[in-house]
Amino acid sequence: MQDLFTEDEQMLQESVRRFMRAEVEPLVPQMQAEGEPPRSLLKRMGDLGFLGTCFDGAYGGSGASLATQAIVSEETARVDAGFDLVLFADIMLFARAIAKHGTEAQKQKYLVPVLSGDRIGAMGITEPGGGSDALGIVTRGRQENGGWLVKGAKTFVTNAPTADFFLIIARTSDEESRIDGGTWFILDRGMEGLATGKPFNKMGMRSSPTGEIFLEDVRVGEEQVLGQVGRGFHMLMDSLDVERVMVGASTIGIAQACLDEAAAYAQERRVFGKAIREYQLIQEKIANMATGIEMSRTMLYRLLRAVERGEKVTREAAILKYYSSRMLTEVSAETVQIWGGAGQLEDNKTARLYRDGKHHEIGAGTNEIMKVLIAKETFKEMGYGRK
Q1: In contact, 220 and 145? CB cutoff 8 Å
Q2: Which pTM value belongs to this model?
């Protein structure tokens, strides 16, 4: 399906794939054991231009298409989904928000070192009291002495234990509309009143450190407000479509790794005198896996082109996120099934793929929320709005 990419994008895909196999794959056992990637690996990717492919060249990016970032994500997730999650939070959440809404000074201070791989970013939205209701946060920011005091807590924050910079959303005024009155703050590790908890011991995505952020009257200057005061939730909602589309790159990458493992094992494993790939029930599994991956991949890159044209893809982004993540859990389960008893051994890649795959049915909006959104947007497109 090379018609999905331009010639430059094909060249990037080949380069990233070689890099992942040669320099990242050997580090996967270390990253899984230590719970985080080495800083030198992010620096190496920054030096090669793999972190900021779709960002402005003035800040260390390559100025290429949004699809290039998806290519990097897909190839990364194919090798280690946890590492891809680190990059997703670092680049697509933190860096992209700074690039889109930051001042020139903020871009120089925060965006440049993240795209170079010298620093790591994180974004805190979810709180201990709830996740899917992003507008129901209780973290508060109040103005005082020409600045702000931010108080509250965030949880399930990717990169929280290791990040240098944090984007935190807080409610800064009580508005009649819940979507009004939110503000983003850029915080630095080491600020008085800011602390992070120990990394969670997660079932999957073990190369990705996840944890809590505690904010006890953190004093923030006006220069650390991102975007317009009171418009934070609007900024968040505007970014969700792209975030959900980009999740598709990760689900496809993991699913492709599953297919790689399943097909190779089906070729080498022999039962009753022949390779199991010759049995129709195994062929059915492989066919279903390949179909789901290609359907998801085609939709992913079609939506990325639509986003670049400025089209609204709320419904389609939710469909891709829902379909591809559900596809992934099925594909990872079938991979274990094809491997049989060996598929349940932690020494085999199949176990890691199975554990990692479940994450994407929950992160970036649960599949239950996606189905609600798809239904609402479908009714809206058919003209059945609320009365």
Answers
A1: no
A2: 0.94
